Amino acid sequence: MRQPFSAGIDTEPALETGKNLLYRAVWRWHFYAGLFVIPFLLMLATTGIIYLFKPQLDAAIYRPLLFVQPTAETVSYTQQVEAVQQAYPEAAVTRVFPAVAANRSTEVQILTGDGENWMVFVNPHTGQILGDRNEERTLSAIALKLHGELMIGRWGDYLIELAACWGLVLLLSGLYLWLPRGRFRWAGTLIPRLGNPDGRVFWRDLHAVPGFYGLLLVGFLILTGLPWTGFWGATFANVWARFPDQKWQNVPQSTVLTGTLNQHGEHAVPWAAETLPMPQSGHHAHSGAIAQTQATVDLDQIIGIARASGISPGFNISLPQGETGVYTVAAPASNPTQEVTMHIDQYSGEVLAQVGWQDYGWVPKAVSMGIAIHMGQYLGLSNQLLMLLACLITILLCVSGAVMWWKRRPSGRLGAPARSPIKVPLAIVAVLGLAFPLLGFSLVLVLALDFLVIARIPALRRTLS
User: Of all helices (H) and strands (E), which one includes residue 110?
Assistant: First the structure.
């Protein structure tokens, strides 16, 4: 078996000491984790870069739809929505994004008869419809669906979550492999040796040294992305994202959660508010029944209520669905301390429930802040550039790791490191498996394959080694 390159230090004799066995065991786990994770991490980093710069890309691609010439005159939002309904009579208006500035258009989201989400852009000064776009076919939407679910739905979501969890194994095992095993040397440990691009030392250092410097950034990306996943993220939210009952002022609640407004990968409402039960409108009507003649509050009044509450520009309004539905005003702000989610009775205009940053526990606050930084929204361009650096480091680690494997791989064989009897790495991975159930389940499968199949079939063992 060829020995791996050490981190720029003197290597020890290749004796089967406990330290060598531990190193070999960690290397084997790092190798298998890399084979599985690299394709996913490459995809996540690439699509992440695209979505990271969504504001700039949208402004460049859809400028005629997003920007208008400001004037002193404005058309009411109710009239703007009516214009959209007249232009698209077979579609239902689901959400409205009021103009964020005088030179920006109003965005009205509609659901067509065939179930597609389109965005219609209206000039708020003239009421003219500027155009529309399919919200599921934009560059950023495609990148987001690949990023979150591989464009195959729930099972894709599970695969992404599994790859992210194994990415943590990859980082921790990589850190151990980077640690000097003998006399410390700067070259190869903290400074890459880039003298010979065709040599294995070049690729080893291009993998290990940036991996050390980027460990926290890449780990941050993985951890802050997990709350959006369908299995671990949903369970995590159900445990931590809870609010006191008095936030609802004793109003009737439906069994529908606020998170159902986040459809098709949208982040219409903040993560911390996804577990909120949706209140119901019309609870003041006689005997709990809604009178057919009861007037509803119009969109301009709802926007006025939102602005009077101090909500920041950039919020959106989800329209009531059915007689008991509510207006939901949500501000998943780039600054999480300004996040607000507000449910308003469609008949009386009463605020039935409202939660914001001040109502979050410390865990939802940490998650919300992490998500904002993860998406490059919190600190503007500097935040985007920092996350871009994390994505580029991820791509570099994937490419250099794949090249390292290819260069050391024996002809016709996979080149996996030899099995080790030591159990310490297994214990570490088992702890991670308890924290992340999908990782734990896959761990059992990998162990069963390794110990019950590969170890007992000599031909298979030779092919993989």
Answer: strand 106-111
